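Researcher: Let's walk through a ligand-bound prediction step by step. First, I give you the protein sequence. Second, the SMILES string for molybdenum atom. Third, you return the three-dimensional complex as structure tokens. Ready?
Model: Ready.
Researcher: Here are steps one and two:
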Amino acid sequence: MTTQVPAPAPDFTPTDDVFVRKHMGVPDIDVTDWTLVVEGLVERPLRLDMAAVLALGTERLAAFHECFGSPFAPDVPTRAVAQVEWAGVPLAALLDRAVPQAAARHVWFEGADTGSFHGQDGLTYVKDLPLPTARGDVFLAHRMNGEPLRAEHGFPLRAVVPRMFGTNSVKWLTRIVLADRRSDGVFTTRFYNRVLPGEASPSPVREVDVSSKLFAPGEGAELAAGKVELSGRAWSATEIVGVEISVDGGAWEAAVVDAPGPGPTWQRFCLTRELAPGLHRVRCRARDLAGRVQPLAGARNAVHEVAVEAG
Ligand SMILES: Nc1nc2c(c(=O)[nH]1)N[C@H]1C(S)=C(S)[C@@H](COP(=O)(O)O)O[C@H]1N2
Ligand SMILES: [Mo]
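Model: Step three, the predicted complex:
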């Protein structure tokens, strides 16, 4: 049986340690020239400068943030994960003003970065989501961990899509288009599609997989033999209901897991375990409310393993 302890306040990854991903470089944006356009199938097209965005009010959102990894290696674990506190405004506030037309089905998010990626030139970073998902979930962030977004994280404004892979969270946002069809850009059609287990055809890389990562001890750690606390974080598109730890290929033992928080945050887990002197392999695997369990190998969310030395 897994023991759940009440959700504590979320812990955040220092901004210096948050991974950075960019397909075509970091655009140099002067916020005094920057605007966000909302157009397409809307009754009232909008053009907002930063003062107009700030006038919509500022909310906070604590959320884990995970990169899918290379679109060319969908089965390779990268374990690039962080948790940050965003500040900004829900997309719904803008949609309420722009008023989508009845024919609008999809929302396209366009970044200011343009260039080439994998031999293709003249690209723009555009992602899309079904309108109900976008209206319900998307958050437009201008701050990260209490400071204005850094250039590499999407200054001055980015989309954040909680519980979806980072690729959907468009940085350097300049244009939002309401449309009756999906975007035909390469980042929606060619890259970031995958065949999910049990399915025959590819679907867009959106909801995260069930996953977990050992944070302490870390890979290659040297520690004192005896009682050792093994801990990490687990996350999924839904809540985590259990995490198990196995040492040296032995039986899976249930770790103590934090209860899910109210929002899209990761959950901590820990297990105190006796480690004899010598080298050990520690693995963790999470299970979520939908019954998904991390596979042992061969998948991007395969169980995480660290090697440690007890002395
Ligand atoms: N405009 C734009 N947005 C983007 C990207 C990009 O290349 N251009 N990369 C995406 C990917 S793959 C990820 S994982 C996240 C990473 O966000 P971060 O660099 O702030 O951690 O941004 C996403 N948003
Ligand atoms: Mo990514």
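Researcher: And what stands out?
Model: Residues 3-204 form a domain with the Sulfite Oxidase; Chain A, domain 2 fold (CATH 3.90.420.10). Residues 10 and 39 are 36 Å apart (CA to CA).
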